[in-house]
């Protein structure tokens, strides 16, 4: 797989593939805990954490797949994260082309 040039991923949620979702045990407070966690995802601290994790994921991917030239991820991202993701990609990969929206992330190197 080190000679892979195009990678297309489908995520049912956010773009980072390293999970930062807390583990809650099934039980009486499970639904309340999940709802509280979902609400917390829109805070600036949470957005910054997601951007950091996604940046680490991207760097690891491009280090492993040295010939990768196109990354295409389908997912579902909150609008609050689109601009921070775009800025992170422009900063980390300044000679690349990117397209970031709420349902798709594309990066050409």
Q: What's the count of strands?
A: 4
**Which descriptor suits the 3D outline?**
elongated
The rounded distance between the terminal residues' Cα atoms is 18 Å
Mean pLDDT, all residues: 86
Round the Cα radius of gyration to an integer and report it: 15 Å
In short:
The protein has about 110 residues and is an alpha+beta fold. The chain contains three helices and four strands.
Question: What features would you describe in this structure?
Answer:
The protein has a 4-stranded mixed beta sheet, with helices on one face. The chain has 3 helices and 4 strands. It is elongated, with a radius of gyration of 15 Å. The chain is an alpha+beta fold and 109 residues long. The chain has helices spanning 30-40, 44-64, 79-92, and strands at 6-10, 70-74, 97-100, 104-108.
What's the topology here?
Elements: E1 6-10, H1 30-40, H2 44-64, E2 70-74, H3 79-92, E3 97-100, E4 104-108
Parallel strand pairs: 1-2
Antiparallel strand pairs: 2-4, 3-4
Task: Give descriptors for this structure.
elongated; 3 helices; 17% strand; four-stranded mixed beta sheet; 109 residues; alpha+beta
């Amino acid at each position: 797989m080190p000679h892979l040039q195009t990678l297309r991923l489908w995520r049912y949620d956010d773009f980072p593939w390293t999970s930062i979702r807390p583990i809650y045990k099934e039980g009486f407070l499970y639904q309340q805990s999940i709802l509280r966690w979902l609400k917390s995802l829109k805070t600036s601290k949470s957005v910054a954490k997601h951007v950091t994790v996604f940046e680490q994921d991207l760097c690891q991917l491009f280090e492993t797949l040295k010939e990768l030239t196109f990354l295409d991820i389908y997912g579902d991202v909150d609008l609050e994260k689109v601009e921070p993701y775009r800025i992170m990609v422009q900063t980390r990969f300044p000679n690349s082309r990117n397209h970031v929206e709420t349902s798709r992330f594309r990066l050409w190197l």
